[in-house]
Design a protein that fits this description.
The structure holds two protein chains of two kinds. Chain A is mainly α. Chain A has a domain of 82 residues: Up-down Bundle (Four Helix Bundle (Hemerythrin (Met), subunit A)). Chain A is built from seven helices and one strand. By secondary structure, chain B is mainly α. Chain B has one domain: Helix Hairpins, CATH 1.10.287.3510. The chains are: A mainly alpha, B mainly alpha. Chains A and B meet through α1, α2, α3, α4 and β1 of A and β1, α1, α2 and α3 of B.
Chain lengths: 181, 107
């Protein structure tokens, strides 16, 4: 069962990622990226990361992708023109991708001691303790400061996004438009 | 046929999937010609790396890997908000999303 689930959702993952590259309309790319993220959430479940699976669906497939589709529709992004791209990408980029993938695949396939993923395998040895319990205990005791610092990061990101995306108030035409004069 | 219903999957398969996702993200970054889809390719790369973090957390039975993915997700959310705001600002200034025509900083 685990193997079937892995094969199905790994297939969805790769299919969605390839579809993202093939589609020329940004909204289709965004939808295939949602497919990739939801399949990844299922794979996280198979790997015993229940909290991350939920966070993946809520944060990535929910919040971030809604933001993407919102921007695609706001800017009315149309079909993209296919061009050859830069020479550096063709000469250095693609050979580098192939090389990196080949090296990583070789290392992984020759690695000794890589285990197997089982649904019954938890992260803890304590009987009765779930993965989420362990994760929250570590996150809110040992790693409380980094956790709080990230909330400041999110706040700064909100301020930065608002400052970047809003209209310039010194522009007389824009302010007149807004006040209705 | 009975092996198809196996209860376990080698972790190396998950790692290979994560490497494939990362490489597809890099290829998308290179071939896509729309600013928004280039940004989506970056998200794809982040997701590929997250999968290998979770896989190694399972391999070493260490919860730190999963916590790292949690922080990566939060930073990715902040990054998406700021990045899309920059895309909106660029669109307002240049009236285009084609990366070939946003070349002010090109040599």
């Amino acid at each position: 069962m685990h193997l079937i689930l892995f094969l199905v959702f790994a297939g969805f993952c790769l299919g969605g990622a390839i579809n993202l590259l093939i589609q020329s309309h940004p909204i289709n790319s965004a939808l295939s990226l949602i497919v990739v993220m939801v399949s990844l959430a299922v794979l996280y479940l198979l790997l015993g990361a229940e909290f991350l699976a939920a966070a993946q669906v809520i944060v990535y497939a929910g919040a971030i992708m809604v933001l993407f589709t919102f921007v695609v529709m706001l800017l009315n992004a149309g079909r993209e023109a296919r061009t050859l791209g830069s020479r550096a990408a063709r000469v250095v980029g693609f050979p580098a991708v192939v090389t990196i993938l080949a090296v990583i695949a070789t290392v992984i396939l020759h690695a000794q001691g890589l285990g197997v993923a089982r649904l019954s395998d938890g992260l803890t040895n304590v009987p009765g303790q779930t993965n989420i319990e362990l994760l929250s205990t570590v996150l809110f005791t040992k790693l409380l400061l980094p956790f709080e610092v990230t909330s400041v990061l999110i706040l700064i990101a909100i301020l930065g996004a608002v400052a970047l995306a809003r209209h310039d108030d010194t522009d007389p035409q824009g302010s007149a438009e807004r006040t209705g004069k | 046929m009975s092996s198809l219903f196996a209860q376990e999957v080698p972790l190396s398969w998950y790692l290979l999937l994560s490497a494939a996702l990362f490489s597809l993200g890099v290829v998308g970054f290179l071939i896509k010609r729309n600013l928004i889809t280039v940004f989506m390719s970056i998200e794809l790369m982040l997701n590929g790396v997250n999968l290998s973090f979770v896989t190694f957390a399972q391999q070493w039975h260490a919860v730190k890997g999963q916590i790292f993915v949690f922080f990566v997700m939060m930073v990715a959310a902040a990054e998406a908000a700021v990045g899309l705001a920059i895309i909106i600002a660029v669109f307002r200034a240049r009236a285009t999303l084609a990366v070939d025509r946003i070349d002010l900083m090109k040599l």
